[in-house]
Amino acid sequence: MKSTKFTELTQEQIDRKWWEIGDFFRRNSLWMLMYCTGCCAIELPPAMTSAYDMERLGMGPMATPRQADVLLVTGYLSLKTLRRLIYTYEQMSEPKYIVGFGSCTINGGIYHDSHVVINRLDRYVPVDVYVAGCMPNTEAVMNGFVDLMDLIKSKKADGWKRYHDNYDWYKKNQEEALGEVRIKDEFHE
Amino acid sequence: MILNILFGLGVALFGFVLQTALGGINRKVIARLQKRYGPKWYQEFLDIFKLLSKRATSHGWIFDFGVIMALGGIIATAMFMPITNELVAFDGYDNFFIFVYLIAVGMLGMAMSASGSGNPLASIGVMRALTTMLAYEVPFMVVVLTIINITGDSSISMIAEFQQLANNHWFIIALPLGGIVAILALMGMLGKKPFETYIAPAEIASGPMVEYGGKQLGMLFIMHEITVFIEVSLFVHLFLGGAENIFVFLVKYVLVYTFVNLISNVNGRFKIDQVVTFFYKWPLLLAVSQAIIAIYLGWVI
Ligand code: SF4
């Protein structure tokens, strides 16, 4: 018979338990910031309205990066928008996740040899889930969100941690592409 | 005294749970209105606990302190709210003016903290929120002062009992013009659609809340739910005859909140100057004529 005796948990185990409880809430209430960079963004209206209704998953649009949990990167990123995207990502409160839409974020898509469009988003910010297709149909988008929830459940959606751990590598790539990246806090200077 | 305080905290907790659950249910109602399926009914709880589980950035101590002041002020206000005739935490202290003054502590805490974040959109939002407050407060006050003049008492539970004793003649029917004004003012207080100028997510990025995330936003959500509880219960007690038992209270509360929400979701949004001109035009006119009719002519149905 299995012993039901209460065993003392270590601090690490207690932290893990709390984190698991937090993960339950976090995966059932994902607020997204839609940084609509490319044409894939057109898949979001059907996903939000009565056709697919993503509010069933507890997801909803949010107006500012501070309040959001998921950053949707919907398509190609030019060097100008990449800079804004990085600023936006750094403002979000942790834990935070990124979903990349379409072949443009994976390998540059139809813009892969353009001088001003980046090819791989993963080199600049950590992406948790990619949704493939050009453009991905709405089922694929919804599927991507469910995948993100599963990843959070199995603790594999750790992009924000990778960003901390490998910050030098990301920073180097960002600087190579953009020149200087300075997170400008214009309200507290 | 200790018992009273514990009971008051219980009232605040009750209001939080009630309003959060009802908020979730109402999201479902709205979803059905838009031919969607809608979230789970306990979605609002998930949202709040998720926010509390996140890390947050701080923008200085005024920012943090203001949030705590807002939450504390609102809990303190909710402690005085009667639920039914007997369920009053501080018997004899449920005066209408106590609510008017105490609720300002919460609002000012929020205004202070939002301005402390330094984001210009937050300051615009705060300015708009205070302007809206200035607009709906005047007609609402005129109507409530009329009621106080008729009943001769400014205690919330006494006004509720007055309506029950006089054969359930609810003030929303006895003072029909005043009832209309009260519903409009309630929509302004709750920040429902034609008057949600100070949130305006697509325009000023949710106004005062623009710089909040994580724990602070979670606390502000709790504060918001309790504020809604206070405002809707005030309406139930002042205009719908209060409640003899808790069941009646729940029914009235749910009906009022759902009704206001349904109206809200088929409306667009006013500009801030339109909000002010609207409230100072028709509702004020209706409220003043109601006061004259009720007090000088004595026509109360
Ligand atoms: S993947 Fe296709 S649809 Fe999406 S942004 Fe790129 S080109 Fe547009």
What is the total tally of β strands of chain A? 5
In spatial order, strands of the major sheet of chain A run: 2-1-3-4-5
Greatest interface and its participating residue counts: A-B, 29 and 35 residues
Spans where pLDDT lies below 50 across 5 or more residues of chain A: none
Low-confidence stretches of chain B: none
Describe this structure in words.
The complex is a heterodimer of chains A (189) and B (301). Chain A is α/β, with parallel strands linked by helices and 189 residues long. In chain A, 41% of the residues lie in helices and 11% in strands. In chain A, strands 2-1-3-4-5 form a five-stranded parallel sheet. The model of chain A has no long low-confidence stretch (mean pLDDT 84). With 301 residues, chain B is an all-alpha fold. Chain B is 72% helix and 0% strand. Chain B has helices spanning 2-33, 43-52, 61-79, 96-116, 120-151, 156-165, 171-174, 176-190, 201-204, 215-239, 246-264, 272-296. In chain B, α1 packs across α10 (215-239), α2 packs across α10 and α8 (176-190) runs antiparallel to α12. The interface between A and B is medium-sized, with 29 and 35 residues. Bound molecules: iron/sulfur cluster. Iron/sulfur cluster binds next to α4 of chain A.
How would you summarize the topology of this molecule?
The complex is a heterodimer of chains A (189) and B (301).
Chain A: H1 11-28, E1 31-35, H2 44-48, E2 60-61, E3 70-74, H3 79-91, E4 97-101, H4 102-107, E5 129-131, H5 138-153, H6 159-165, H7 167-178
Parallel strand pairs in A: 1-2, 1-3, 3-4, 4-5
Helix pairs in contact in A: 1-5
Chain B: H1 2-33, H2 43-52, H3 61-79, H4 96-116, H5 120-151, H6 156-165, H7 171-174, H8 176-190, H9 201-204, H10 215-239, H11 246-264, H12 272-296
Bound molecules: iron/sulfur cluster.
